[in-house]
Design goal:
Layout lengths: L2 H50 L5 H14 L8 H14 L2 H10 L21 H10 L3 H14 L3 H9 L2 H4 L9 H6 L10 H7 L6
């Protein structure tokens, strides 16, 4: 048997093994990201309720951060600022407005099932990216776009910052003159891209039925 053929066959098999490793590493990374987001969501919800009821004030948040740092040094990422980021994450994405926007443009698999649960669409990018988006983008459509775009392009924090700096959202909107009259009448203020089949195909997302 040709030695080069054997080597080729083995190389193909090795490639299959590598693909399995990459596939499962990707799944593990996604699982870790989901748990980190769920942690931020639930901590944010808990602290938010304490703040809104005025049971806690900003001083208590500082005390909480210090308590975690001193009593549980193995738990990282709970500075005063980051705890407030978790509150913002929960407050902004638990709103009925955000759920309505997701419902309006995307397939049901991304719809928030219950008010107390984290919307599935948030799993598409990291907590760090979410904070960049929340702090720098005020419109819900804009936030939704960057969540989807970050997922498609696998954006890290710096890439996300560049995209927002370059106003990728506006640059990909296109021209409303290209829209049909019916769509303009039905959604006069909606970004074009959410109604663009090419854009949804680009993102690899299911179309709203």
């Amino acid at each position: 048997m040709d030695k080069s053929l054997i080597n080729t066959n083995i190389e193909q098999q090795f490639t299959e093994v590598v693909n399995l490793i990459v596939q499962h590493r990707s799944k593990a990374s996604m699982a870790v990201n989901k748990e980190m987001l769920l942690t931020a969501w639930h901590v944010g919800a808990y602290v938010s309720k304490k703040l809104k009821s005025e049971e806690w004030g900003s001083k208590v948040i500082s005390q909480l951060s210090e308590y975690i740092r001193s009593q549980h040094p193995e738990i990282k990422g709970y500075s005063r600022r980051n705890i407030y980021n978790m509150v913002m994450f929960y407050d902004e994405y638990s709103t009925e407005t955000f759920t309505t926007i997701v419902n309006k443009y995307l397939d049901a698999e991304f719809v928030q099932p219950l008010a107390a649960q984290m919307p599935k669409i948030l799993e598409l990018t990291t907590f760090t990216n979410h904070i960049e988006i929340l702090c720098r983008c005020k419109r819900y459509e804009q936030r939704l776009f960057y969540i989807l775009y970050a997922h498609k392009e696998k954006l890290g924090k710096r890439e996300m910052q560049r995209c927002i700096d370059n106003d990728t959202f506006s640059n990909l909107l296109g021209n409303k003159s290209n829209m049909s009259k019916g769509l303009l009448e039905q959604y006069p203020d909606a970004p074009i891209m959410f109604k663009d089949t090419v854009f949804l195909d680009f993102l690899g997302l299911p179309k709203k039925k």
